[in-house]
UniProtKB/TrEMBL annotation:
It comes from the Archaea. Gene3D superfamilies: 3.40.50.10890, Ribonuclease Z/Hydroxyacylglutathione hydrolase-like. The keyword Hydrolase applies. Residues 230-341 form the Beta-Casp domain. Pfam families: Beta-Casp (PF10996), Lactamase_B (PF00753), RMMBL (PF07521). SUPFAM superfamilies: Metallo-hydrolase/oxidoreductase. GO terms for molecular function: hydrolase activity; RNA endonuclease activity. The keyword Hydrolase applies. This is mRNA 3'-end processing factor. Keywords: Hydrolase. Residues 13-225 form the Metallo-beta-lactamase domain. Transmembrane segments: none annotated.
């Protein structure tokens, strides 16, 4: 078996792993990163005609954003859940809208990719002439999956992004469906440096921050990732009865909400999700955005790091009033407006410097496993299982491996090959 890290080696994002046996080759994800100027950065090249199949773990662009480039000729079958497929289509179209000049694909390639989709569900197994793949709930975002490959008599799990802990939105990853005596585990290790706070404490602090601003007569802006985070925030608000003012959902998040609603089997509590959908108000354009600004509201809108999108529209109008609040519920990458807001209390947008008088909060809502869960996941497998860490910074992962006292393979750059 040969494992080649095409992307995600020594970096977070741009995930792509190629697994080759004697007869078949399987590609796990094919995502993008973005450079400082917002231009997409792709994984290493792979020839589509050499691929037996592609498995897509979930619909975030850092795992799927380069996939359509494989569907120009000799297109391989693409295995994903039906929900992941529909959400990925939403993300592909948005990527073309925002970065189309720099992408090696257009709408035709997206359509070609979608035509090659073979929908799978959790627990399904697909045969490939002696090799096979089984798909397991990853607990990351709605529709996300791990892939368990059996190739030439060896077993490998590719986790994609995963979360062992349950949330309001999802059950945790279904690890017990995996064998313990695997040969390889290729796992994301984004958060090797620390634990996430207990869910109950996190929700309580978040709700208190929201209510404080509402009681002072202000509005609350919550910039959120389109898939996963926006839905988790909405359900958390409704579960805690924060419904005295409109809960507004804007941008791509409202479209993602609708797609997810069609697939309740992927949700931990479909009834609560339905209640949250009914409690929210969808914004369809600038006219309705102006109406929203006339009264108090809780606003959920992409982009999660204030880097464009509907959230920036609201931020410009809410930031200067001390009664309002801006709540960042996600990781904020350096060189983004969200990071700038947290670090210095002001944001430069174009030529305009916006001094923020609104209350600013950050909460660690994460759809990834933290340190405690990563250790638990590794300990589930046999001591002879070779664990390969991807989708992580090398320094923190090396420290993690040393502290764990177990031999782990920490990828340092994309392009590494592991051959056994």
């Amino acid at each position: 078996m040969e494992i080649q890290i095409l992307g995600g080696g020594g970096e977070v994002g741009r995930m792509a792993v190629l697994v080759k046996g004697s007869s078949h080759a399987f590609l796990m994800d094919y995502g993008v990163n973005f450079d400082d100027e917002g231009h997409p950065v792709f994984p290493l090249h792979v020839r589509p005609r050499d691929l037996t199949a592609v498995m897509l773990s979930h619909s975030h662009l850092d795992h799927c954003g380069a996939l359509p480039s494989l569907y120009v000729s000799s297109p391989p079958p693409l295995y994903a859940t039906k929900l992941t497929t529909e959400l990925a289509e939403l993300m592909f179209k948005d990527a073309i809208k925002l970065s189309g000049y720099y992408l090696p694909y257009e709408d035709d390639e997206v359509r070609n990719a979608l035509r090659r989709v073979v929908p799978v569900g959790y627990g399904d197994t697909v045969e490939f002439g002696g090799d096979r793949a089984t798909f397991i709930n990853a607990g990351h975002v709605p529709g996300s999956m791990m892939t368990y490959l059996e190739v030439d008599g060896r077993g490998l799990v590719f986790t994609g992004d995963f979360n062992l802990s349950e949330s309001n939105l999802l059950n945790g990853a279904d690890v017990t469906r995996l064998p313990r005596d695997l040969d390889y585990v290729v796992m994301e290790a984004t958060y090797t440096s620390g634990n996430h706070p207990p869910k109950e404490e996190l929700d309580k602090s978040f709700i208190e921050a929201v209510k404080t601003s509402l009681e002072e007569g202000g509005s609350v802006l919550i910039p959120s990732f389109t898939i996963g985070r926006a839905q988790e925030i909405l359900m958390t608000l409704v579960r805690n009865n924060v419904v005295d003012v409109p809960i507004v959902v804007d941008g791509l998040a409202r479209m993602a909400n609708q797609i997810i609603a069609k697939h309740p089997q992927f949700l931990r509590d479909p009834d609560l999700y339905g209640k949250a959908m009914k409690a929210s108000v969808e914004v369809l354009g600038n006219y309705y955005r102006r109406q929203v600004m006339r009264d108090q509201a809780v606003i959920i809108a992409p982009a999660g790091m204030l880097k464009g999108g509907a959230s920036l529209y609201y931020f410009k109008r809410l930031a200067r009033d001390k009664r309002n609040a801006v709540i960042l519920p996600s990781f904020q990458a350096p060189d983004t407006p969200g990071f700038e807001l947290l670090s210095r209390g002001a944001v430069r947008i174009g030529n305009e410097e916006i001094r923020v008088n609104a209350k600013v909060y950050w909460f660690d809502f994460s759809a990834h496993s933290g340190l405690r869960e990563l250790v638990k996941f590794i300990d589930y497998f046999s001591s002879t299982t070779k664990v390969i860490l991807v989708h992580t910074e090398p320094l923190s992962s090396l420290k993690f491996a040393q502290a764990l006292g177990r031999e782990l393979y920490v990828t340092k750059v994309s392009g590494e090959r592991i051959i056994e």
